[in-house]
Amino acid sequence: MEIKLTTSEIRAILQGYQYTLRLVGSSKDYRRLQSSEYFSTSNDVVLNDAFNILGEVVDAIEQVEQATQQ
After folding, report:
1. The 3-state secondary structure of 13-58, one letter per residue
2. What contacts 17, CB < 8 A, 6 or more positions away?
3. 8 C-beta neighbours (distance < 10 Å), count
4. Contact, 57 vs 3, CB < 8 A?
5. Other residues' Cβ atoms within 10 Å of the Cβ of residue 42
6. Is the pTM of this model over 0.85?
7. CB 10 within 8 Å of CB 61
């Protein structure tokens, strides 16, 4: 089954994830966990990296939209 989403829906979903990551990242408990000496990811990625990546993807989508509307 193929899921059909409009560009606006895709952008809204990604921005929603970005907002959620910002909420989690700003929570006191998450900051405590991330600052622990035991906190580690296999490639040193942290939540802020995921937030930034989603922002870049949203920006790229907007650039494509602008370029194709001209």
Report:
1. HHHHHHHHHHHHHHCHHHHHHHCCCCCCCCCCCCHHHHHHHHHHHH
2. 54
3. 10
4. no
5. 5
6. no
7. yes
CA distance 25 to 31: 7
Structure tokens at 7: 């560009």
Structure tokens at 66: 């602008």
Q: Which two tokens stand for residue 44?
A: 């040193």
Q: pLDDT for 16-58, tens place per residue?
A: 999 999 999 999 999 999 999 999 999 988 899 999 999 999 9
Q: Which residues make Cβ contacts (< 8 Å) with residue 24, sequence separation at least 6?
A: 30, 47
